[in-house]
Amino acid sequence: MNVLSISSPTIVLVHGALTDASVWNDVIRRLQASDRNVVAPALPMRNLTGDAAYLAGVIDRIPGTVILAGHSYAGAVISHPAVAARASVAALVYIAAFQPDSGESAGELNAKFPGSLLTPENLLVEPNPLGGQDLTLRPERFAEVYAADVDPALAAVMAVAQRPLEPAALGESLPGEPTWRTRPSWALVSTRDRSLPPEILRYMAERAGSRIVEVDSSHAAPVSQPAAVTDLILAAVSSVADAGLRR
Predict the structure, then answer these.
(1) How many domains does the chain have?
(2) Which CATH number do you get for residue 48?
(3) Are residues 96 and 246 in contact, defined by beta-carbon separation less than 8 angstroms?
(4) Residue at 80 is within a domain
(5) Does residue 159 lie within any of the structural domains?
(6) Which of 45, 60, 79, 148 is deepest in the core (most CB within 10 A)?
(7) Which residue spans within the chain are E strands per DSSP?
(8) Using one digit for the tens of pLDDT, what is the confidence trace for 58-115?
(9) 124: helix, coil or strand?
(10) How far is CA 22 from CA 12, 149, 171, in A?
């Protein structure tokens, strides 16, 4: 890995459940204004193994070093052993995201501490035409649970444009050593999060040895706090570049 590839990585922004890559729009604009290479794929959202395989395929098409940033459920995806196997992945940034260890699932972790409003009465699970199921938030509950600090008009748009998740994905355990055991990581803890309570975000980030930043934000941190999210990603980029230059 040469110095140029380390100092000019591609930043891959991975969306979580209930949103698509548009959740990163304001972060993308800021990163592009800093002349950064950015990719923001759309995950299938059918199962953790499939999402990790899809992301691994995206990474394989990118020349040079990659910095991964995952929001929410995507933290489990970027932690997957299929992603860890990609040598080009130099660092991880978890934005209000799951950081599972081997054998843990996202659903199990989110039940570890009280406070999540991702509860049955706030969720919809409906059959889809392909024979699976789609999990979303009830539109009238979306803002309170997911995006309480987002402009209400934008939150209303997000509520009707949700990207559904197959519910079983939340119960799928990480099948091996997580990526964060072998890569440096950063974590944003959203202190007003009603989807992933701050306590579980802190627990996972501290366990992983991540460099933690706490932000006064709802779960929709890439939307409501894009400057803070961008700054954390750029901190990871700079740290990786500095480490490469010292080699």
Answers:
(1) 1
(2) 3.40.50.1820
(3) no
(4) yes
(5) no
(6) 79
(7) 10-14, 37-39, 66-71, 89-95, 123-127, 133-137, 185-190, 211-215
(8) 999 999 999 999 999 999 999 999 999 999 999 999 999 999 999 999 999 999 999 9
(9) strand
(10) 13, 17, 25
